[in-house]
Protein: PLP-dependent aminotransferase family protein
Organism: Colwellia demingiae
Amino acid sequence: MKLLDKSSSAYLYQQVIDFIEHQKKIGALHPGDKLPSLRKLSRQFDISVPTVKQAYIELERQGQVCAKPQSGYYLQAMQARTLKPRPAKWAQCAPVEVQGRSMIEQVHAAVHLPNTVALGISNPIQAHPPDKALARLMRSVLSKVSEKAVSYGPVTGDAKLRMQLAFRYQDQGVEINPDDIVITNGAQEALSIALQCVAKRGDIIAIESPCFFGIIELIETLGMKALEVYTCTEDGVCVEDLAEAINQHDITACLFSTAINNPLGSMKTDEQRQAMVSLLEQHDIPLIEDEVYSEIYFTDNKPKPAQLYSEKGLVMTCSSFSKTAAPGYRIGWLLPGKFEEQAKRIKRAQSASTPMLQQWTLNEYLLSGDYDRHLCVLRKTLTYNCERMRALIAEHFPQEVCISKPLGGSVLWLRCQSHVKTGEFFQQALAQGVSFAPGAIFSPSGKYQNYMRVSYGVQWGEDVETAVKVLGQLVYEYTGKQKAAQLLEEK
C-alpha cells in the first residue's frame, strides 16, 4: 500500500509525520494510543524503517509522541495531574471498627448488572482472558481423572501444584518447602486464615490507607479493629510512620501489600521492604503480605516477596490466580511461615479442602509455559490500558482531578476537588450504565470521600471510553451543583 508521494519535494519522513497528524485530526488516533510499529508502517508505505523512525523521533522531539522501552511509540496523552506524596503530616488515626458496608455491597452488586461497564471492580484478566487455553486444559485433565474430579482433596491442596508454586518462589530466592504451602479458596481465604493464626477478636491490625475494601470487610467480620497507616502513592507504607504507629498502639499484626497496593498501585523497593520486615520482627509483629498483584508489575523486575527478608518466620504470604488467570476458579495459597500448623488446622476446620479439578488444570497451565507467556501479554496490555485511561480521564474530567501513576495492577486512584463526595453520584452513574468504586470504602473510618477508583483491567472499546466520559461529566455536574448551592447560601 503506497500512500506517500515519493515524487513530492517533501521529505518522506515529513509525510509520515503529516499522516500521523491527520490520523489525530480525524479521530483515528487518540491520546495514549500506541502508534503502528516501525516495521508495519514501513511495509504499509513501502519505505525504509529508518525513515519511519526519523519521523517518530521528530514527533517525539515536538512532544507529540513518547517512546517506551520494549513497547513502542505512543501518542502523547494530555498532561494528567499526578497524585503526589503527602505535602504535610498525615493525621494518625485511632483503631476503628469498619464503616461503609452498604456501599461495598452496592459496588459488588454492580458487577453483575446487565448493560453496565464495570469500572468499579478490579478484574485484570478481562484485558486478556486466558479462558480458551484453560478450557482446553480442563477438558484434557477431566478426561484423565474422571471420578477423582468430584472427590475431596488433601487439606493443603494438590502436591504437584504446590511444587510448581515452590519453584516459582525459589526463582526469587525464597526457599519454600512445597509441604508448607496451603492451597486455599482464593486469596481471601488465605488472608482469613493468616489473620486467625495471629490475632483474635478485638485485636488491632495495621493496614494501608487507602486499603482494598475486601480486607477492611474481612477484618470487621473477624471482630478485629483496623488501624490505618499512611500509604505513599509511590512507595507504600512509610517505615517511619509504621514505627510511630507501633509506638502509639498495641498492634497485633500488619496486613500490607508491599508489592502492588490496591488502589494506589504503589510498590516498595526491595530495600524498603527489607527495612519494614526488620522493624516488625524487632517488635515480634507478624506481617501478612497480600501479593495478589505481584505478577502484574510495570517495572523491569518482579518485586521480591517480603518473606525473603524474614529471619523469624513472622511473614505470611497470601496470593492467588484470581487476578492473573481465573477468578472463577477460586484458587489461592498461603505461605504460613512459622504458623504452619495453625494454618493447616484452621484450613481443615474452615473449608476442609479446595476443589481439585481447578488445581490440576492450573498445574498443567504452569507446566506448559502458557501461564508465563500469558502474563507477559497481560502486563503489556494493562500498561497500554493504563496510559489510555489516564489520558481519557485527563481529557474528560475537571483539570483539578489528580490521577495515580501506578507501577502495576489494574486500577487508577483519582482525587477530585475537596468538596466532591463521589459516593453521592454512584447511583447516577449506575443509571447511566457505569460503575466505579467510591473512595470512602477504601478506609474503615470513611476517609477519601472525594476519591474514586477506576479500573483499566477491561477489554478496551468504545463502551469504556463512553463510560469514562460519563464519569467525568458527573464530576462536572456535581461541582456545578455545589457551586450553585454555595452561591445561594452566600445570598
